[in-house]
Amino acid sequence: MLKGQDFSRLFETFEQTAFRLETLAVYDVDEEREEFEDFLAGKGLPPDCSENPWVRSMTDLGKQVSRVHVLRSPLSDYLRYELAAYPGNIKAGESIGIIDTACQQVVGLPDHDFWLFDDAKVYRMHYTESGQFIGAELLPADRLPEYRQYRDIAQANAMPFGEYTAA
Q1: What was the pLDDT predicted at 143?
Q2: H/E element holding 40?
Q3: Are 88 and 51 contacting, i.e. CB atoms less than 8 angstroms apart?
């Protein structure tokens, strides 16, 4: 399984498209801990969240980055925090959709996260029960059609982030 710099390199080496399906209500990310605590304390997000530089580093090269987050209302504290940061990702060029299972049921999606790069490589994401990242497992090429279908189902059923927050 890939993690650390080996995993980060995937975002430097994909050529055209990166799609993420997110399914967890909580992600336990060391680098976000202080910012998350500040958010819970009512301090909001730091100014550099107005446009995500990590996303911008990819979209400035003409690459497309998109995700669909499958979640359930009412939102966990972590999801409120994560969704508060999404406008900065969108401003940087990422396309984000939401499937709220409290409002709609979507059949045919997996119960785990994955990244699909260039329609050519799929990595299943593994996490602990508390949401800590364990690693990304490269799945065999014969699984690509299945994960492309998951992406297509997610994108066809997702509500654009702006519509979700307005509703």
Answers
A1: 98
A2: helix 33-40
A3: yes
- CATH code for residues 4-166: 3.30.870.10
CA distance 136 to 115: 9
**For residues 163 and 148, what is the distance between their CA atoms, to the nearest angstrom?**
25
- Length of the chain (residues): 167
Q: Taking a C-beta distance cutoff of 8 angstroms, is the pair 65, 93 a contact?
A: yes
Q: How far apart are CA 36 and CA 30, in angstroms?
A: 10
Strand partners, 133: 127
Q: Could you tell me which residues come within 8 angstroms of residue 118 by beta carbon, excluding any fewer than 6 positions away? A: 14, 15, 16, 17, 18
Instruction: Please compute, for residue 39, the number of CA atoms within 13 A of its CA located in the half-sphere on the CB side.
Output: 19
Q: Round the CA-based radius of gyration of the chain to a whole number and report it.
A: 15
29-55 pLDDT per residue, tens: 998 999 999 999 999 887 766 789 999
Burial environment of residue 1 by CB neighbours within 10 A (0 to 12, 13 to 18, 19 or more): middle
Instruction: Retrieve residue 128's tokens.
Output: 């602990």
Cis before 110? omega within 30:
no
pTM: 0.95
